[in-house]
């Protein structure tokens, strides 16, 4: 059964709109305490200003240990005395054994577990600043002073 001209026209219009959106969008850049986050899978952003990052590079930058079980899709992230346990495709997680509901389930891109960056901020108490204009996310860990904002010392 051949598609009719209306179906073809709508499909072509949607494909053109998606292509134009991708062509004029800028990739999201993430930095942790002023250092650019390097990952083989770049951050993914949505139209609702949600940013997803590869979990392991972000956790490494935060000084956390990440353990991943490929068979079950379970991930454990340990940073100091905090332990976040989550699973690919599941919005249920635990933080130090206490239930935690994620707004968006982690997913895989090219073998990397991608997680909403706000999940990590909430679990480990880091601060996020997202500048939509420059497509830049700045992650600040507690106790780190940004360059140029250090208090004067006598």
Instruction: Tell me the strand order in the biggest sheet.
Output: 5-6-7-8-9
Shape: globular
Strand content: 35-45%
Sheet with the most strands? 5 strands, antiparallel
SSE order in H/E notation?
Answer: HEEEEHEEEEEEEHEE
Number of helices: 3
Average pLDDT confidence is 83
The helix/strand class is alpha+beta
Question: Approximately how much helix is present in the residues?
Answer: 10-25%
The low-confidence parts are 146-154
The radius of gyration is 19 Å
Total E-strand runs? 13
- First and last CA, distance: 81 Å
In words, what does this structure look like?
The model is unreliable at 146-154 (pLDDT under 50). It contains three helices and 13 strands; from the N terminus they run H-E-E-E-E-H-E-E-E-E-E-E-E-H-E-E. With 154 residues, the protein is α+β, with helices and mostly antiparallel strands. The chain starts with a helix and ends in a 14-residue tail after the last strand. 23% of the residues lie in helices and 36% in strands. A hairpin with a 2-residue loop joins strand 8 (92-95) and strand 9. It is globular and about 60 Å long. The strands form three sheets. It has a five-stranded antiparallel sheet, with helices on one face. Strands 2-1-13-12 form a four-stranded mixed sheet, with helices on one face.
């Amino acid at each position: 059964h051949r598609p009719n001209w209306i179906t073809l026209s709508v499909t072509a219009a949607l494909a053109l709109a998606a292509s134009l959106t991708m062509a004029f969008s800028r990739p999201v850049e993430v930095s942790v305490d002023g250092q650019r986050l390097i990952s083989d899978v770049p951050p993914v952003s949505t139209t609702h200003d949600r940013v997803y990052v590869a979990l392991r590079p972000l956790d490494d930058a935060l000084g956390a240990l990440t353990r991943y079980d490929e068979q079950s899709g379970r991930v454990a992230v340990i940073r100091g005395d905090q332990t976040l346990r989550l699973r690919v495709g599941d919005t249920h997680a635990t933080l130090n054994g206490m239930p935690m509901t994620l707004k968006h389930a982690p997913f895989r891109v090219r073998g990397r577990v991608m997680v909403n960056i706000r999940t990590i901020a909430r679990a480990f108490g880091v601060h996020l600043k997202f500048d939509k204009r420059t497509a830049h996310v700045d992650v600040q860990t507690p106790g780190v002073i940004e360059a140029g904002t250090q208090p004067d010392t006598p």
